[in-house]
Design a protein that fits this description.
Helices cover 68% and strands 0% of the residues.
């Protein structure tokens, strides 16, 4: 043991699901053991930090449109009329959705 190239031991604890996933990923990688797989991940793997705030904003705008459409549908069924103010409101919300979507797509690293 004194002549080991790697002298720093790493000990981690995994639950059963994490252990199963690790074993499946090691098998899929074709590497000979968990240590090799984990070293490869440490050296060459990626860590993603995903900001979901814009996606939440996007989903909120879509929910508003859905609610407005339901209200308009109720009014239409009750009165048989579509109001210009309703159409204007939907167009404004759709504009917000498109702007948010463009912002999200512009930040994608492809």
């Amino acid at each position: 043991m004194a002549n080991r190239e790697r002298k720093n031991e790493l000990k981690i604890y995994l639950n059963d699901d994490e252990q199963y996933i690790l074993e499946q990923k090691v098998k899929a990688s074709g590497m000979r053991d968990k240590s090799s797989f984990l070293r490869h991940q440490i050296l060459y793997g990626y860590v993603y930090d995903i900001d979901y705030s814009e996606l939440r904003e996007y989903n909120a705008a879509l929910a508003k449109i859905g609610n407005n459409l339901n209200q308009i549908a109720k009014r239409m069924n009750a009165t048989g009329n579509v109001y210009a103010a309703d159409v204007k409101q939907i167009k404004e919300l759709m504009s917000q959705v498109w702007q948010t979507q463009k912002s999200i797509l512009s930040k994608q690293h492809i």
